[in-house]
Design brief:
Helix content: 55-70%
Shape: globular
Mean pLDDT: 87
Order of helices and strands: HHHHHHHEEHHHHHHHHHHHHHEE
Strand content: under 5%
Low-confidence stretches: 413-430
Number of strands: 4
Largest sheet: 2 strands, antiparallel
Number of helices: 20
Oligomer: single chain
Amino acid sequence: MNSLSLFLQRGLIPRMTALSENTYLASIRAGMVSVVPLTILGGLFMVVAYLPIAGWEARMAPHLPLLQIPVTATFGLLGLFVCLAIAYDLGTRLKQEAILSASQAALVFLLIQLEMKDQTLVMEGLGSKGLFTAILIAMITVRIQKAFTDAHWVIRLPESVPKVVSDTFVSLTPTVFLVVAFWVIRFVLGLDIHAGVQALFKPLVFALNTLPGILVYAFLVTLLWSVGINGDNTLDAFVAPIFLQFLAENVEAVGRGQPMPYVTANGFFSTFVNVGGTGATLGLALILAVSKDPAYRKISRLSLPTQCFQINEPIFFGIPIALNPWFMVPYVANALLLTASTYCLMDWGWIRKPFVNVPWTTPPVIGHYLLTGGDWRAAVWGVVSLGLAMVVYWPFAKAAERQRLAAALSPSSTGVEPPEETPLGREQQP
């Protein structure tokens, strides 16, 4: 156990922490988070258009073209919005003029999306299908902007010139270079950058919509959390564009009256698996709320209000679950159980697949209902999921409780101090 702890402390944790704090990955996360309000807005119109009420679709049919406009304006331009947001955030982190970083990235992204069809210029990669291209373009353009600035390959006007004018000339040389370079690559050499990026990420995109793939993801997220690393944040930079792409394509399918293609769309994991927080710890909080151990009881009751909004840090670090083998097992097991069972129920058509984006802080059951566009079966499954989580945590929680109570009684009964370490880790003060 000591060797494992040493490996975690000196090997895994520093490396994963450095990865989660990487400048580029942090910018990707920030960019993806910034478009969430747009997808929520588009989702609200989808809910109005496709409520699962008998006769509702027929009643809304004349109004569908009008309701579809905000959906197209949000989901249909996700790639462009993500490119702008990531470039702006990365430009800020690299101490560039962020607004110029965003505009250069957007210009290049639009340029490479241009395509000639029947003598007409069209753009088909501005939505969710262009997310990975948007990320790549944002990072490349900002890095080139910084390279030009650091090498002083920019036009600098006298200080007497207003800053807004001076900044325009500073951005001129990198902008010219970027446009010419990508114009040559895309149109002179005929290399389809968007298609190449899509092909590169295709295996990962495919894997995350399979049961084995999403189980591996669930295992990695909870394993990282178990050693004190924010697993969601660490992996979000890699998986958030994929889950958002899945959601957008489900939205598109619903709009066309076709079956939704993706089970693991955005919200599947944060709502259906993370019931009351990663590892479905709301189940543990409900068990310990009536614990005979006063410390467990106090921590649980303090954490319950936040867990109703999917925030579980109080119980996660208060018990603790992190670096505590006694609770790590049910913590990971719950994520795997809820991932597998929910995936199967959606794949079999017993629960509607996600197609409405809701804030991750939406309370359980309510979030289940809204994410699926008002499917009552999803809400019922939310209640059942909470019950399953409690069943998994129950034997571990009760065994931990018995051990703590026995340790508390041992000094008075034997006159011997309890051991400093227990299978639960170092004793926590209430």
